[in-house]
Each structure stands twice: as C-alpha cells, then as structure tokens.
Design goal:
alpha/beta; TIM Barrel; eight-stranded parallel sheet; two-stranded antiparallel ribbon; 10 strands; binds NADP nicotinamide-adenine-dinucleotide phosphate
Length: about 325
Amino acid sequence: MSIERINLGRSDLMVSRIGLGTWQASYKQWGEDVQDLKIIDAIKKSIELGINLIDTAELYGNGHSEKVIGSAIKGMNREEVVIASKVYGAHLRYDELLKSAEMSMNRLGVKYLDLYQIHWPDPWEQIPLKETMKAMEKLYVEGKIRAIGVSNFAVRDMEEAASHLSKGFIASNQVRYNMLQREVEEEVLPYCKRNSITVMAWSPLAQGALTGKYSQTNVPKDTIRSDNKLFKKENLERIQKLLNVMSSLAKAYKKNIAQVALNWLLKDRIVVPIPGAKTPKQAESNAMSCDWSLNAGDLKLIAEVLAGIDLDYM
Ligand SMILES: NC(=O)c1ccc[n+]([C@@H]2O[C@H](COP(=O)([O-])OP(=O)(O)OC[C@H]3O[C@@H](n4cnc5c(N)ncnc54)[C@H](OP(=O)(O)O)[C@@H]3O)[C@@H](O)[C@H]2O)c1
C-alpha cells in the first residue's frame, strides 16, 4: 500500500493524505494505558506505512510529546518526516514565539520545523495578531520553519493573519472536524477551499466516539475525555444508529468503524485528518483508512443518518 501525498496548502511540502496526532503523548492525561514506548512504536509504524505528517504542540504534556517524537525519529532521514508543531496561546508575543520555536526544535532534536502553527488565536485578545505574524514571518524567512499554519482560526482570523504577511502565506488551518462535529463546514471549509489552505482535521475520530468501542456502559475514564460531552450517556445512545450504519459499511469494505470515520473526511481533498494513536495497532488501522473510498451512495446514507442526530452539549 502506498499512501498518497498532497501539497500542504500552497506550500511545496508534500504530506500524506492522513497524518498522525501526538497529543496522546502527554503522560497519563489520555488514560492509564498511555506508554511512551508504545507511542514511539506508533510513530515508527506510521512512518513505515507512508504517513509523514506528525502533529504535536509545545502544550502537549508540556513539551513531552515533542520529546517522544524526537526519540522516535532519531537517526531517521529528516526529509522523511513533516513535523508540525504549535506555539501555545500564551506565547504569542514576538520574542516569546521565537523562543518557543527554538525550544520545540530542541525537544524534537531538529534544526527546522516543517509547519509551525498558532495553536489558538490569543484567548485574552491582548497581543496584536500583527506582532505574532511578524514573528512567524521571521522564522519562515530564516528557514527555521518551512510553512506557516494556524489552528482554530475563524475566517476573519485567517484573513487578518494573511494580511500581516508580506513574505509567507497561511498553508493550513487545524480545526476540529469529524462526522459529529461539523461546524467548520459552514464557513471555514469553503474559505479554505477557495484559498487553497489545507484543513488539518483534529479529533477526526471524535476522540474515540466514532470507533464503535464506547457505549453507554463503557465510557473512557481519562481526564481529557471526562470533559467531552460527546461521551454523555444520552449522546452515546443518540449516535448508536450512526455507528450501526458505519458498522455495515465497514463490513462491506472489509474495514473497521474508525476507518469509515476517517475515510468520510477524505471526501474533501483539502482535508487531512490527524488521528491520535496510542499504539502501533491503532496507527496501522488509521493509516489503512485511505486506500479505498466510500461511494456517493454511502455518503448519502451517512448524511441522512447524521441529519437525524441532535447531540446534547449542555
Ligand atoms: N489544534 C488543536 O486545538 C487540537 C485539539 C485537539 C487535538 N489536536 C490534534 O489532533 C490529534 C487527534 O485529535 P484527538 O486526539 O483529539 O482525537 P482523535 O484522533 O479523534 O481520537 C484519538 C483517540 O481515539 C482512539 N483511537 C485512535 N485510533 C484508533 C483506532 N484505530 N481504533 C480505535 N480507537 C482509536 C484512541 O483512544 P482510546 O484507545 O483510549 O479510545 C486515541 O487516543 C491530537 O493528537 C492532536 O495532535 C489538535
């Protein structure tokens, strides 16, 4: 199996059709079963299978995720991986951003980052976006980052960010996108399509809710997902019908439910899902999500079921 590569936005970076998220490498926040060595193997397995896009952030495990990636890629040809890290929302001042980038590179053991993303727009709205973008531009011009990205940016944020760049451009916007959480379809996705900005889909498996392994009697117990309203018993009951349809599609294609969830996102060529994996087995399953396609009838069936699902976020 060879995994297709596409350009990341208008950049010359070629990324696999599916990436790998590594928020999971944050000690036990994602559950007692998290083990660095297994995540290192998951990263190696992904690369072996042709996944080259690895997403991380200085925030994940307070830098631990970047260190885990650094261990996994040590000794590899640097060109084999596209490393995407993010600057934390509290480090958006010019000098702080430059320092954050250096520290990320040190933890990763690399001399440049392929993609550097602003994790969230400044939550306190204190720092002019122009100041942040000028720091990004400096890194880009100096070759310390190969592409500039943003994350969780609305259309107005992307427009403003782009207006402050005279040398680079926004290559990607990383946003939450999965079958159950489709807010980006309204404005962000159409804007990104029009402007050739890659949409990196975070939580593409709805943090596991779209894998079929959780139910009203089996909910994840880790700190991250205990706050996720998708895992409320009422919601798990409401999505059961969708999971049943996904399960029959999975059977027909000899795939599994998680692979159906990821493949559904590939219907738009601008979307690159970045599922997080804790084990090589999960990484392998996720990598095998892009060597086939749901057909128009399958997509219509899924759309009909989704139209009947109303989730409770209270
Ligand atoms: N930019 C942002 O603000 C932002 C926010 C969130 C995430 N992200 C990025 O996006 C990545 C992915 O999002 P996410 O971690 O929120 O959620 P996700 O990818 O939707 O779900 C990941 C979880 O699903 C389960 N899983 C993964 N592959 C599986 C498989 N093949 N079969 C069964 N279960 C599987 C694993 O947990 P269990 O095995 O414990 O169920 C895993 O921890 C993150 O790692 C991070 O890089 C970015």
